[in-house]
Amino acid sequence: MSTPPEHGHDGSGPRTAVGERRRLVNVAYRLLGSLTEAEDAVQEAYARWYAMPRQQQEAVRSPGAWLTTVAGRICLDLLGSARVRRERYVGEWIPEPLPDRTEWISGSAGGDRADPADRITLDESVDMAFLVVLESMTPAERVAFVLHDVFRYSFAEIAEIVGRTPAACRQLASSARRRVRAAPVPAVPKAGQAGVVRLFKQAWEARDMEALVGLLDPDATMAADGGGMVGAVLRPVEGRDRIAQYLIHIATIAPGLTLLERTVNGRPGLVAQRSGVTMTVAAFDLTGDRITRIWAVRNPEKLRPWTEDGRS
To answer: What does the pLDDT read at residue 311?
Structure first.
């Protein structure tokens, strides 16, 4: 797996700490699968930094390492509580989808572009299929795996975050890798995936049942995340025939939707809009030239970066 730029521990003082924000948001998003929670975790880490007397700040040899440790611990706590919250979640919980940086829109009125420092680096470690695999890990496994295998932190550094020995952290990462190998993420080239997604879009717009079935793997699954805030199927739809029937049903009962080809978590996907407001963001997983999984995010709280005026 290619990795985002490696972390740095050079320099000291508050100015260096400010420059760590983008890296920390990137780490936190991969740990939590939620941009909102990631930003909150990083904000809390900075709040703790600035609550320290200046003398204590200057005594910290590496503000970046200090912030990473604090943010990592916050994320670890959030992952533990998230398991309880998601047991009460209405329907399927799907990681928050991210647009391409050229399509990134802030949730503020007026449609101002988000600060580039707050954008997530899109690579295979934020692929929706990969994030779903991360959801199967224990909180400690996820922290150890993401920090070591994606961001190249040492196990000694990770031990400071999870409160275990470096050897135990090595075992956590090894266990997480077994989970990844047990649920391999197919490596379909983006160009090939874009072609299949385009055909899928055309078949849905034409309400062509036969074409939809032909694009789906026989054992395909589709999950939707409405969060109890909007209508969405509560359980995964399994099998290409049932998925195609469901999609044709949606096309019939929800007229006026416009489908747009967009990058979703670094891969070709689709965005459904009505009157400029994003209603659904769909991510796809493929094996060969067949769609194996569809994740449809409809929870408005997860769609704020996708709508110009924040009305998602």
So the answer is: 42
